[in-house]
Amino acid sequence: MSSSVPSPLKATDTGAAASEQAASAPDPYMPGHGTNAYRVSRYELDLDYKLSSNRLSGRAVLHALTMYPTAALVLDLTGLRATKIQLNGRRVRKFSQRAEQLVIVPEAALPAGEEFTLDIRYEGNPVPRRGLWGEVGWEELTDGVLVAGQPNGAASWFPCNDHPRDKASYRISVTTDANYRAVCNGTLIAHTSRASRETWVYEQAEPMATYLATVQIGRYEFLTLTPFPVDGQVPQFAAVPALLVDAAREGLARQPQMMRTFAKCFGPYPFSEYTVVVTGDELEIPLEAQTLSILGRNHLDQDWDSQRLIAHELAHQWFGNSLTAASWADIWLHEGFACYAEWIWSEEAGVLPVADRAAAAWRKLASGSQDIIVGDPGPELMFDDRVYKRGALALHALRIRCGDLAFFALLHDWTSDNRHGSVSTAGFILAADRTTGLDTEALLHPWLHETALPLLPVR
Predict the structure, then answer these.
(1) Rounded to an integer, what distance in angstroms lies between the CA atom of residue 31 and that of residue 6?
(2) Cβ-based burial of 370 (10 A; exposed 0-12, middle 13-18, buried ≥19)
(3) How far is it, in rounded angstroms, from Cα 416 to Cα 409?
(4) Predicted pLDDT of residue 25
(5) CATH number for position 421
């Protein structure tokens, strides 16, 4: 896909629409979320948020295309109330909300291949969505807001087609209290102040999955870590509470080197800039979003546990954000790759070689339960640490078999050919076959699709 704002999608014929319908069917890991009836090409979000009352008033304009005939448009929206809806500029009288869905009934059914625009006004007090993975979505901090959308929290703050394959461009405008900074995906294109309110407007041109969309609000200082796009770098920034500025500069000091290392190993960084938000609160784990990552104040140390997390979240810009799994079953394509990036950074930083990291991970896996299929772990186990470590070991096994030259050529081809697109394990195996000449399916099958742990890969 192009890195510019996508033009409206076109359905060329009935066969293409049927193929698209099958490819983007609702994900079995997220029943009741997402639809294959239409694809969204762009979201335009205007949010007005009052911190003291946790009150959100929103307007969402969706530009979309039907993939097959539909008599009702179903969107994901939870905890917020739609108040007014227009379809192609005409008021919609018939809509309802049930469970976690907004159902819009047009006056007449929409045919396949129909471009349409939805304009939805909504409001309420946003709260995180509770599920198998705890609370995800819009969350109040001690002094501000954090949005962690993975895997199905986007609907807690805007109406959407919450499917990882439905990637779109975004414009996000946030109006909030004065002296607070709103940080969103993409590039800041406008900032205005009026009385006791400030408005921040961001453009995310490259296609983005809904779960990666985010809003961060806090009393943040804005630091420039690297100002110029040179030597594998893009401009890097940090939004940090004033009391944590020195700690953030120290904790993130090696991030530019991480960026250079990963650009060398994976190909050019896929976006125009990168921002790290550091919250004043402690967080259990860092969070990923497209073009930015969110760390807690407790993730700024110089020890390996903190530095590996900084590297891990940066690596997700390639694996997870630019290249997004078309199905949650293939989440190892995000987490296994980001975990392997940690090991690459460990060796580059002179901490431990990749082989030692792989051996330590293998020993830990060998001492535990052998009851997970990493290539299809199921929703309950999709964020299990074994998906991360065993996925990384699968990559290490491939690297050992084909050699460094072919392995890193494969990663460059993989990120380039699928830039800003959707990917699958089957697609990765085909790409590996082409680049390495190996029977990649036979090599990776025991790692990804059998419960028994294969032997440790060694040279």
Answers:
(1) 28
(2) exposed
(3) 11
(4) 56
(5) 1.10.390.10
Q: Cis link prior to 270 (omega < 30° from 0)?
A: no
* pLDDT, tens digit, 9 for 90 and up, residues 40-71: 999 999 999 999 999 999 999 999 999 999 99
386: alpha, beta or left? (left if phi > 0; alpha if psi -120 to 50): alpha
Q: What is the CATH number of the domain that holds 20?
A: 2.60.40.1730
Instruction: End-to-end CA distance of the chain: give it in Å, rounded.
Output: 37
| Mean pLDDT, the chain, whole residue set | 93
> Is the distance from CB of 76 to CB of 33 less than 8 angstroms?
yes
Across the range 80-85, mean pLDDT stands at 98
DSSP per-residue string spanning 297-332: GGG--SSHHHHHHHHHHHHTTTBTTTBEESSGGGTH
* Contact assessment for residue 406 and residue 377, using Cβ atoms and an 8 Å cutoff: no
Please check whether residue 150 lies inside any domain of the structure.
yes
Q: Is residue 456 part of a domain?
A: no
Domain range holding 66?
1-215
Contact 315, 341 (CB under 8 A): yes
Based on the fold, state whether residues 300 and 380 are members of the same structural domain: no
3-state secondary structure string, 23-86? HCCCCCCCCCCCCCCEEEEEEEEEEEEECCCCEEEEEEEEEEEECCCECCEEEECCCCEEEEEE
**What tokens were used for 142?**
């001690």
User: Are 162 and 129 within 8 A, CB to CB?
Assistant: no
Distance CA 140, CA 147 (A): 9
For the record, the structure tokens of 378 come out as: 């199921």
Structural contact between residues 124 and 81, judged by C-beta atoms closer than 8 angstroms: yes
Q: What pLDDT was estimated at residue 165?
A: 94
Element containing residue 16 per DSSP (H, E): helix 14-23
Q: What is the pLDDT of residues 138-151, one digit of tens each?
A: 999 999 999 999 99
The pLDDT confidence band at residue 233, using thresholds 50, 70 and 90, is confident
Residues 22, 160 within the same domain: yes
Contacts of 305 (CB under 8 A, 6+ apart): none
pTM: 0.93
Which residue type occupies 184? C
